[in-house]
Write a structure and sequence with these properties.
By secondary structure, this protein is of the alpha+beta class. The chain is built from 3 helices and 10 strands; from the N terminus they run αβββββαββββαβ. It has a domain of 142 residues: Protein Transport Mog1p, Chain A. The strands form 2 sheets. It has a 7-stranded antiparallel sheet with strand order 3-4-5-9-8-7-6.
Amino acid sequence: MLKNKSLVIVSILVLVLAVVAMACAPATTPAKPVTPPATTTPPATPPATPPATTTPPATPPATTTPPAAPPAVVEKPTSFEAATYTDDANGFSFKYPKSWKIAAKPYATAVFYANDGGTPLPNLVYVDVRPATSVKDSAVAALTDFIAAKGVQANPKVDSSTEITLPDGSTATDVAVSVSVLFQNKKGYNVGVIKDGKSIVVSAGIDPAQMDLFKEIAQTLRVKK
């Protein structure tokens, strides 16, 4: 009996000591979880933008404009059946009625002469080439020489003198003349150019009623460039 009481007392003492020990123990604050310091990620630096390059507009290749082609020569048909006389030495050609007969050159600077055989004065065409600076002066001098070669004295008169453009684009001078021969008034038409210091003049005439024909003949003059 005494032994049981002793066990009870010992047990009570152990409990009391345990309670006291627990009461005296410092309170333990549960450890807070350690929060790692916030790391600030710097914003990503965008890659450096290369300066904008301005591409100059492409320069088109230089284009070489070919020289304009000379206008095509449109030859009108003549009102007469034509023959062509070509002088390679002086660089010209012209047309005359095929039915007209070529005759001897009437004076020194004439290079061609033909006529229709009419009487007493035939219609005619001749070409004069001489050193000169004026087609008008050459036309008058050529007609004077032609008349003198026939043994007749006369003084040609210039009725008109103008610049014209031939169908091939060449600039020429036309000269209309008149002259009194054997008490008859005759007319002539001349077309000429100055080339290499020389005048080249085609002269046609005699019958005033045939002036359109004479113009047509003289204006067939073509000079090599």
